[in-house]
Amino acid sequence: MSSYHLDHLGYLETEAIHVMREVAAEFERPVMLFSGGKDSICLLRLAEKAFRPSDIPMPFLNIETGHEFPELLSFRDRRAKELGAKLIVRTVDDALKKGLATQAPGEISRNKLQTPALLGAIEEFQFDCAIGGARRDEEKARAKERFFSFRDSFGQWDPKNQRPEIWNLYNGRLNPGENMRVYPINNWTEMDVWEYIKREQLAVPTIYFSHERECFRRGGQWLPLPPSHTDASQPDPYAGARPKPNEPVKKLVVRVRTIADMISTGMIESRADSVDDIIGEVAAARVTERGSRADDKASEAAMEDRKKAGYF
Amino acid sequence: MPNTQHPIELLRFITCGSVDDGKSTLIGRLLYDSKNLMEDQLEALEKSADLTGGGQINLANLTDGLRAEREQGITIDVAYRFFATPKRKFIVADTPGHVQYTRNMVTGASTANLAIVLVDARQGVIEQTRRHTYISSLLGIPHLVVAVNKMDLVDWSEARFQEIRDEIESFLPRLGGFRDVKFIPLSALNGDNVVDASAHTPWYEGPTLLGHLETVHIASDWNLGTFRFPVQWVNRPNDPTDKTLHDFRGLSGQIASGIIRAGDPVVVLPIGLKTTIKEIRHYQDSMPTAFCPQSVTLCLAHDIDISRGDMIVGIENLPGRSSDLQARVCWMNQRALLPGKKFFLKHTTQTVQAVVTTLESRINMGTFESEPNPPALAMNDIGVIRLKTAKPLVFDGYSTNRLTGSFILIEQGSNATVAAGMLTAPTEEAKPEYTDFAI
Fold first, then answer.
1. Which of A10, A169, A174 sits opposite B406 (nearest CB)?
2. Which helix (H) or strand (E) element contains residue B12?
3. CA distance B408 to B345
4. CB distance from A169 to chain B under 8 Å?
5. Structural class in CATH, domain A8-201+301-308
6. C-alpha angle B192/B196/B199, rounded to 5°?
7. Residues B54-82: pLDDT tens digits?
8. Count of C-beta atoms within a 10 Å radius of residue B308
9. Cβ neighbours around B257 below 10 Å, total
10. Which of the listed CATH numbers 3.90.190.20, 3.40.1500.10, 2.70.70.10, 2.40.30.10 matches domain B320-423?
């Protein structure tokens, strides 16, 4: 192979950097979604590569469901601080209080409620573009995504009428109220993400590595035992998400493969305690990454329906 | 298990052809037989087979990800799939067969190294076969595979295979552009010659489809010829605490073609000033050399006023510079293109206003002949047009440079992307005005 040849990670990296710089150049008020998860960790390194020695020319935004793994939040805050970036946090709780969102009766997961909270934040800060770490290989509705994904003034995705996206010429033009979602790592697979984390020696939250945790079995998955409810003056935020008497709690050696929040993330039993181990595990995996997420299991079109409504 | 020890190449390909030629089934088969399908994906397939398919697994359901697609049993938009073998990584764009979704095929084709055009062995070559082969050639995809599918339904007839091959080979010379063309007889449904060689084709001596995808030579697909660098973003740190950054002024972008070394002389266009590359930066590194398609930041020896949309080029083989342009376009909007209409034209990293002055010709897909002076270009038509831009473009012909020779047209008001354009080579080079600006 000639020395003027990029390997697959080099190709994916240059494609993503190009996309990020297009955002910085073409939008007035872009924002980058950063949860502290592995995909958005890669986004941050790509942003450093795209913009250094300048500052990353956009703030970070995270929408909390209120059920986050504490390890993830502290990692998120630390990383934003290290990079000197402004981190904006908005919560599903706020959206509920402001009446932007209403919980469906009987539903415990707040995954769907992230959508109105996200749209509320976009409105509040007048963001015209939000960069996210979604990938086409995650799910089949996402497999149809463009790099620049147009959303109308209701934040909706119209999959039957997407803008053609040709060469590397992205059309970022918007009318007032409309906005763009941009996915620089669209073409990355789960394996690419871990190989990039290894190559760039990126830190990740400890919950990706094997650890002991109390879990209980529900819906064919090992769910983490939520933190205990101490403040009796407040309603239990994990009501409904605690083990029932017929769901015995077991101490297991587990890790997360993909992170939603504590209610929707299945833990996988694993002894992988290094990035190399994880790469080995991903290579040998016989189920997809999203196989451990309750939010995607609802129906064959679960993701498509949420995306049409404005979900990431 | 993917090999992480040495660099692995990435091959991007599209599958195209008419509706029901079996494109989605072929991708399903490639993933299934190369062990790239996961248990939960199989489980979901089996579930939908029990519910709707009378127990028969439908491999097409793997890529048809939208509700409307599964309802109608067709592919509407490009679906991207990813798989790997120990030899290569692959990105597949499964593109729609319906004529009305040709624009989505163009989306998939514009970034592909290789096109697989499927032909139903029973139907033979039809207009969509010709159209998709034409578009693949028009967009400059270097490698073509004609997959003659459903060979089981013509009793694995070598004569039938040869007949289809002869017909396509008879019109290929009129298209040009492909570096290599491969014809493969297969059955996507049963898996013959997809991953595993078929026992039904003793008369066929070539590779299986996957064997070809793993070995076709792609190392020279990127353009390492003349240096072209459209400036994408001006990198000016605004950090009052760091003195070393006070004077930093970098030009960020992706190298569209060629190789650049620190110390190389370059010309900045359209202003036409000559200078040299002081430093090539990538994140924290200073690199002696960089090449297409790397994204880098260039620092120049002179402080020249440069902004997004300008182009830094090598001193030999200068690009053209003109506001009168000729281009082949693929029209992608329901409202037909009429001469006189104004658009935004996005070329490399700049957007300018442009007016379509003349429709010179329209390609007849049946004959590949040019029909002169069409009154309009309808959706999915391909034709040659002339444009006038509000500001001159610095450009190359698409046949020599895919990235500096291409543009899109954006409709004003709706902001819809309505055309993909490929520029005709310039008639004269951009003349730098001050050639002897100090080096």
1. A169
2. strand B9-17
3. 6
4. yes
5. alpha beta
6. 55
7. 555 666 666 655 566 656 655 667 888 89
8. 21
9. 23
10. 2.40.30.10
Q: Taking CB atoms and an 8 Å limit, are B38 and A285 in contact across chains?
A: yes
Measured distance CA(B284)–CA(B25) in Å, rounded = 46
Test the A interface: residue of B14, B35, B47, B77 with most A CBs within 10 Å: B77
Residue A39, both tokens: 């995909």
Confidence band of A3 (pLDDT split at 50, 70, 90): confident
B9-215 fold = Rossmann fold (3.40.50)
Contacts of B348 by beta carbon, 8 Å cutoff, 6+ apart: B230, B256, B309, B311, B403, B404
Cross-strand partners of B281:
B286, B297
Smallest CA–CA distance from A48 into chain B, residue: B283
Secondary-structure class of domain B228-314 per CATH: mainly beta
Give the residue from B96, B204, B200 showing the smallest Cα distance to B153. Answer: B200
Contact B39 A166 (CB under 8 A): no
- Chain B CB within 8 Å of residue A200 CB: no
Query: What is the C-alpha separation between A44 and A268, in angstroms, rounded?
Result: 26
Q: E strands of B332-401, at which residues?
A: 342-347, 350-363, 370-372, 382-395
Alpha helices in B110-230 (DSSP H): 127-138, 158-175, 209-215
First vs last C-alpha separation in chain B:
52
Return left, alpha or beta for A297; rule: phi > 0 is left, psi -120 to 50 is alpha, else beta: alpha
Neighbours of A65 (CB within 10 A): 21
Q: What is the pLDDT of residue B154?
A: 97
Q: Where are the domains of chain B?
A: 9-215, 228-314, 320-423
Residue of chain B nearest A166, judged by CA positions: B107
Q: Shortest Cα distance from B400 to chain A (angstroms)?
A: 15
Which H/E stretch holds residue B195? Answer: none
Running DSSP on this structure, what letter comes out for residue B252? E
Q: What is the CB neighbour count within 10 angstroms for residue A53?
A: 18
Domain ranges (residues) in chain A: 8-201+301-308, 206-295
Question: Which B positions 205-234 lie with beta carbon below 8 A of chain A?
Answer: 219, 222, 224, 232-233
The pLDDT, as a whole number, for residue B63 is 60
Quick check: B3 pLDDT over 50?
A: no
Residues of A in contact with B63 (CB under 8 A): 140, 143
In the stretch 171-200 of chain B, residues with CB closer than 8 A to chain A read none
Cα angle B308, A40, A122 (rounded to 5 degrees) comes to 70
Please give the single-letter amino acid code of residue A15. Answer: E
Position B4 scores a pLDDT of 44
Question: Cis (ω within 30 of 0) for the bond into B293?
Answer: yes
Residues of A in contact with B66 (CB under 8 A): 141, 144, 159-160, 301, 304
Three-point CA angle A274, A279, A281, nearest 5°: 95
In this chain, the answer to whether the domains covering B228-314 and B320-423 adopt an identical fold is yes
Of A5, A136, A287, the CB nearest to B40: A287
Distance of CA A61 to the CA centre of its chain: 11
Residues of B in contact with A167 (CB under 8 A): 110-111, 402-403, 406, 408, 420
Q: State residue B57's pLDDT score.
A: 60
> Minimal Cα distance from A196: which residue of B?
B4
Packed helices B158-175 and B127-138: angle between N→C axes, nearest 10 degrees: 40
Q: Do B84 and A191 touch (CB under 8 A)?
A: yes
Name the CA dihedral angle for B251, B255, B261, B264, rounded to a multiple of 10 degrees.
-70
List all residues 6 or more positions away from B84 whose beta carbon is below 8 Å from its beta carbon: A189, A191, B2, B8, B36, B90
Length of chain A equals: 312
Interface membership of A55 toward B (CB under 8 Å): yes
pLDDT computed for residue B37 by the predictor: 78
